[in-house]
């Protein structure tokens, strides 16, 4: 137990130890602990990592079945993902580290922040670009280490990868011996049915190789209004959101922005799609890997439902007939975007309900096609008797706006773009049908893989294993680790020591804690609007509580904005590392004073003589340690106006106050633009926690005492993730 609770935590090359008072208080619980071992048995697990591109979290039938807005609406048909969800632990509020392909995939592979990988845009995976600035990008990229590299080097796994790569090519090779490949094969010769390796492989060239090997003559001539799908080179029939809809057949596609939207019905049959070809490659790989009697890792990376959203007729026709009953979110009305840092799409069809429903036909069809092939992969495991010995992970890199906020694509911190599915299956070791509603981040997937495959000793990432939630042993002991930070920085190197855009030109950080979300730029002086949403009562994020409303925000909303900003600040400090990734201005090409200082100085909302993070403090699910249940929460108190705040006392009240201990800041002075932290620790039985009657009284110099209620299972659902698998609806 002491190892579990008191071990220093390494994040971003820095060590953080649990609170000393908490260590002392917990020492008596060491004996007789019934907490689960952190080690899986000695048999080496296989890893089957299935991912899609641009599939948002609610595009799974089993999820839509639990969301009120989909009642009576056309739902996506995903029987295989539904089955996988029933056999897995699912993370229902899972967020990508970055809502863009290459940055998100680099974090999934390495468990490191965007600042640490250096892959902050899709373009930086190219050596010519990241080599333009060795310090800001080149050294970071070359220092990345993926879970496949670790499995290959440390435990002699056979590792293969099929489908969309979108990572630096350095990750194909072992990190310690760059003449040896970590990824043995990444391509498939459909003429000879043998695996190959092609360092220049892309999803486009892979599809071309698959189609070229076909013995069936495929039609390339244009008929009527058909256009050429530049992804496959074959015709498709566009629907209304397509940028060439209404143009003569065979019109050349324009490049960039809203002029390059490809949506419609494919002329190719289902045997000639990218999804089908990737699946064939992967199933052949599984046959070979299983027969070699060695542990293996296989990544199957489907390009769908990423653009071009051109779906084959069998799936397209089904949803075309059902399109009138698609759910379109109210945020398609862009009035609320006047108080947003983001802009709606220029294409008016993206804000037209009927046009968006036609667009959804292709998106839903592509998801269903992927589901079919996911079922084939999982069936192959069953047939080979490998199911119980294979860690299966299903996720995506980011979501898709699909008309919400009048937008298409990804690239924002809105739920539709940033929130993704995550399921993890390992029979007899990971609970089946369990749903976790605590916000989690994709940066933790890497550590989870290493944890379950017995490689924790090789984990030098910025993440933490999600096993703490799977096994219900997260006590929040060292600091609050039940919130999410996502990052976004669209700047590329120019070759002359500068970056392509100004600091803070877009929202750069998102913080999610419970049902609250904050989005801010990493520039104190940026003119971009800050955004904060209470997703519980505003699930479509149409009421920004800051921005235009910041100056008149309620005390409660100001307190929550300050709270989320403090959590971001603490996260940046933990991830900063010995290079000062988030404190040294050099990592912003010398612009500004470093992310930490810029975030600390930024405040576009109302200032208060006293703020508190929570008027109702949710006590999250406790960990079972020894004979007791244990939980830490953190209350923050601060001041943003001039002068000093005197806190006379912070005390407990209520019939169950003896079950709570307060530590950290309990009285004293708080200077302007600073804050203090109160540690709130519960120790007791499960029944005690479920019926807890306790509150905190703060006596201070600025007026009446502040009463903070502690909420647990008797008046919230925070202890019962499995009872509310979807969490807040989108």
Q: What oligomeric state do these chains adopt?
A: single chain
Strand tally = 32
* Distance, first to last CA: 38 Å
Spatial arrangement of strands, main beta sheet: 6-12-3-14-16-4-17
Helix content: 10-25%
Question: How large a portion of the residues is in β-strands, by DSSP E?
Answer: 15-25%
Helix-strand makeup class: alpha+beta
Q: Give the number of helices.
A: 19
Rg measurement, Å: 26 Å
Largest sheet: 7 strands, mixed
Look at the structure and give the mean pLDDT: 91
Low-pLDDT segments? 1-41, 714-730
* Shape category: globular
Report on this model:
- The structure is a single chain.
- By secondary structure, the protein is of the alpha+beta class.
- It is built from 19 helices and 32 strands.
- Strands 6-12-3-14-16-4-17 form a seven-stranded mixed sheet, sandwiched between helices. Strands 23, 25, 26, 28 and 30 form a five-stranded antiparallel sheet that branches. Strands 24-32-31-27-29 form a five-stranded mixed sheet, with no helix packed on it.
- Strand 1 (9-11) and strand 2 form a beta hairpin.
- Helix 11 (274-291) packs parallel to helix 13 (353-383), helix 12 (313-320) crosses helix 13 (353-383) and helix 17 (555-575) packs antiparallel against helix 18 (595-601).
- The longest helix has 31 residues, at 353-383.
- The two termini are 38 Å apart.
- The relative contact order is 0.14.
